[in-house]
Amino acid sequence: QGQVVExxxxxxxxxxxxxxxxxxxxxxxxxxxxxxxxxAPGKERELVATNTNFGASTNYADSVKGRFNISRxxxxxxxxxxxxxxxxxxxxxxxxxxxxxxxxxxxxxxxQVTVSS
Length: 117
Fold this sequence. Notes:
Layout: E1 3-7, E2 10-12, E3 18-25, E4 31-39, E5 46-52, E6 57-60, E7 68-73, E8 78-83, E9 92-100, E10 106-107, E11 111-115
Parallel strand pairs: 2-11
Antiparallel strand pairs: 1-3, 3-8, 4-5, 4-9, 5-6, 7-8, 9-10, 9-11
């Protein structure tokens, strides 16, 4: 069925950095895309960054371009979100979405990122 586990969230000051990890395990089919979403209190979940075509393509939300970087280790089935120059408005729960070649997407439980002085 597949399992997704995120980690790496925490409290960081504005201007700081964090690296989130997303580990996918137990998938029957190859993973074609891994994406990071976030949801702030009272707001809808939004796409932050996506890594598709088995790692060949990446896309970012305009709000994080130039500050965040998504990378993927295909051997470890792990995606990373490197977040730099963090702002208070980046505060949210960050979720990882894993899309296999066949079957439904799988989501993790999320990891909290808080940017505050």
